[in-house]
């Protein structure tokens, strides 16, 4: 993997600030919806708003079709190892785990599943984390 250009990543333009505000607004609205309807908020958060916005912004920044395709495909593969968390976490909470221990355990499980996904997919010629 090439050296990460932190100077480019940590430099914010007015457009970047707008992107941050819009993305944060989506999260806050979903959180507010949760106060009155937890199922509707779950549906809204399951929609890939941030992925769609990211792809729109990549397109506006004149990213190549190949980079957009790689982003969409990578998003698909990286969503899969997060899915067990949405079953394990509620099970833990219902079985008297505290919030923070359950959250920590699920973060560790998800990290392990991410790396397992990367290793397994490499065997099939899909390299999500190029060396």
Which structural traits does this protein have?
membrane, DUF3147 family protein, 131 residues, transmembrane helix, transmembrane
How would you describe what is shown here?
It is a single chain. This protein is mostly helical and 131 residues long. It has seven helices and no strands. It has helices at residues 6-9, 14-34, 38-46, 49-60, 65-79, 85-94, 99-123. Helix 2 runs antiparallel to helix 3, helix 4 (49-60) runs antiparallel to helix 5 (65-79) and helix 6 (85-94) runs antiparallel to helix 7. The longest helix is centred in the C-terminal third of the chain and has 25 residues, at 99-123. The termini are close together. The mean pLDDT is 91.
Strand tally is 0
| Strand fraction | under 5%
Average the pLDDT over all residues and give the rounded result: 91
Cα end-to-end separation = 5 Å
* Radius of gyration over C-alpha positions, nearest whole angstrom: 18 Å
Number of contiguous helices: 7
Helix content: over 70%
Mind describing the biggest β-sheet? none
Structural class: mainly alpha
In N-to-C order, the SSE pattern is HHHHHHH
- Poorly predicted runs are none
Based on Cα principal axes, name the global outline. globular
């Amino acid at each position: 993997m090439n050296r990460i250009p932190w100077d480019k990543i940590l430099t914010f333009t007015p457009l970047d600030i707008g992107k941050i505000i819009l993305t944060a607004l989506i999260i806050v609205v979903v959180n507010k919806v949760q106060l009155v309807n937890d199922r509707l908020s779950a549906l809204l958060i399951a929609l890939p708003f941030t992925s769609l916005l990211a792809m729109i912004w990549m397109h506006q920044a004149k990213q190549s079709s190949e980079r957009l395709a790689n982003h969409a495909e990578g998003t698909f593969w990286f969503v899969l190892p997060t899915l067990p968390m949405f079953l394990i976490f509620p099970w833990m909470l219902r079985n008297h785990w505290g919030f923070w221990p359950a959250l920590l355990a699920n973060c560790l499980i998800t990290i392990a599943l991410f790396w397992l996904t990367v290793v397994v997919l490499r065997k099939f010629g899909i390299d999500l984390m190029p060396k």
